[in-house]
Amino acid sequence: MTSEQNNSSSQQSAGRRGQDDGRLPEANISKTRFSIIWIIPIISVLIAGFLLWRSLYNRGPEILITFDTADGLTSGQTQVKNKAVTLGTVSSITLSKDMHHVDVRVQMNSSASGLLTDKSRFWVVRPRINGASVTGLETLLSGAYIAFDPGVGGEQRTTVFRGLESPPGIQSDQPGRTYTLVAPAIGSIGPGAPVFFRDVDVGEVLGYTLPPGGVGPVMIQFFVREPYDHYLHTNTRFWNASGVKVGFGAGGLKVQMQSIQALFSGGIAFSLKSSSTDDDETEAPANTIFQLYDDQESADNAGYHERVPVATYLSSSVAGLAVGSSVSMFGIQIGSVTDVKLQIDQTTGRARVRVAMDIQPERVLSPEQIHSDTMVSTLQALVANGMRASAASVSMLTGETNISLDFVKATNDVKTYMEGNTLILPSQAGGISGIMQSLSTVSDKLAAMPLDKIGDNANNLLAHVDQRINSPEVRQALVNLRDSLKSLHDLSDSANKGLQPLMKRLPEMSDQLDRTLKNANKLLASYGGDTDFHRSLQAMVVQLGETARSLRFMTGFLANHPSSIVTGR
């Protein structure tokens, strides 16, 4: 028998005894034993409840992000991240009703609930090639994900967002400032293009805005990271650093390139002024608008504030001359061309080119030497000394032309005059055109010469000369001249032979004359006193001395030049 059957029989016997005794039977309570098998379901229920509670606790809002395409996105797998921290997971991807975009629903974590504002931004991180930069390579193995930037200053909470098709240039937690450039065209500059300072990448271009109606300058927004944004002043100048600049100069071929990245994606650059004043040190605040120049040379030229407007009229070719070309004196740049315009007088039919220029005194003069009221008079003085403007070729290879201010020998009095506030400088043909004009002038003068008559006269002269030379008179004159020269030679020989005895006696005569002078001196000394005889004798002695000197001189001369007796020299 089992224990349950024993318990039942005992309860029945007890009940009968109770009935016999007139009392109610007592209930027999048995203890239920707990089975260990119930532990596993209980633990499972507890775990499930904990997970449910945790899921509900960590569950954030569900948001809707709209993208143009769902490339790289997978429902249930693609995650939303910020700084590599997962903030949510894509729950569903559906096509919009108008079929123009896709709706991506994302279940966010509770930690992101306070970050979802109207300033929040979402974009898909995937491999991208932008110019010379490649981003998102890590997603080749892990797959694409949605990047999240909470933004700054958002006040209104929302759960509907418009996703970005490309990564933003800057994120909300990146220190720095945003500025704007004004340019007539963007060239090869695009979003993501670098910003250079002394060849260092200090920022990037965020984007550009076209003017309403397409008329006007383009606004280019760019960002400069901290601390480089403190280097920007209100007078800082920017230039386009895209591509490669090739030029021919005095040093030969020159190739300038900012960087490989700027070559492919474009770029802009800026620099500090070499000399600045207190006004130049004003730091540029955020959203300051700067002008973008075509190149560094144009940006440097814009730093010269003192400008003297001048112009000249050219009647020769100005091929290769354009706005921005240099104005030089002795090969040194002193200004730049601001306008080149062809003018035709319909009344007279005269055509000429008006070239407007800006002379920049700061290039050659110190600030102390620059006086605005004397610059015009200085240029007029230079013109009075022969200064003329001409178009000169800079490079035969590139065809570049500039305006050269040269000094020539002034052949006439040229006066300058004013057109409004512009000084008009006299000009002359220069370069190849000047050479061709000079050759044309020489050719015209040669053509005006009576070359035919000159040739005829020369032929007649030569013919008469030949007749004169071959005439009997000329022949007889030559014969007589030969005979005369022969007779003169014979006379000279005879004179030399006749003078030889005389030449031999001349030294002896000179010695005798010296002895005579000595005796005369002795005689003169014996007669002292101031008498007439003494004075006469003294004068005779002086004359004898001069005679002796003359005789010695004649002896020496005849010894060296015996033919002088015949020729008289």
Looking at this protein, list some descriptive labels.
alpha+beta; elongated; eight-stranded mixed β-sheet; disordered N terminus; single chain; seven-stranded mixed β-sheet; 569 residues
Q: Which blocks of ≥5 consecutive residues have pLDDT under 50? A: 1-7
Sequence of strands across the biggest β-sheet = 23-24-20-21-22-19-26-25
**What global shape is seen?**
elongated
Q: First CA to last CA: what distance?
A: 191 Å
Task: Give a quick account of the main beta sheet: strands, pairing sense, barrel closure.
Answer: 8 strands, mixed
What this model shows, in words?
This protein is of the alpha+beta class. The protein has eleven helices and 26 strands. Helix 9 (472-526) packs antiparallel against helix 10 (532-560). The chain is elongated, with a radius of gyration of 59 Å. The termini are far apart.
Question: Secondary structure elements and their pairing?
Answer:
Elements: H1 3-21, H2 39-58, E1 59-67, E2 79-82, E3 85-95, E4 102-109, E5 121-125, E6 128-130, E7 133-135, H3 139-142, E8 145-149, E9 160-162, E10 176-183, E11 194-197, E12 200-209, E13 218-225, E14 238-240, E15 244-249, E16 252-257, H4 260-265, E17 268-270, E18 289-293, H5 296-301, E19 308-314, E20 326-329, E21 332-344, E22 351-359, H6 375-384, E23 387-393, E24 401-407, E25 417-419, E26 422-425, H7 431-448, H8 451-469, H9 472-526, H10 532-560, H11 564-567
Parallel strand pairs: 1-9, 2-8, 10-18, 11-17, 14-18, 19-26, 20-24
Antiparallel strand pairs: 1-4, 2-3, 3-4, 5-8, 6-7, 10-13, 11-12, 12-13, 14-17, 15-16, 19-22, 20-21, 21-22, 23-24, 25-26
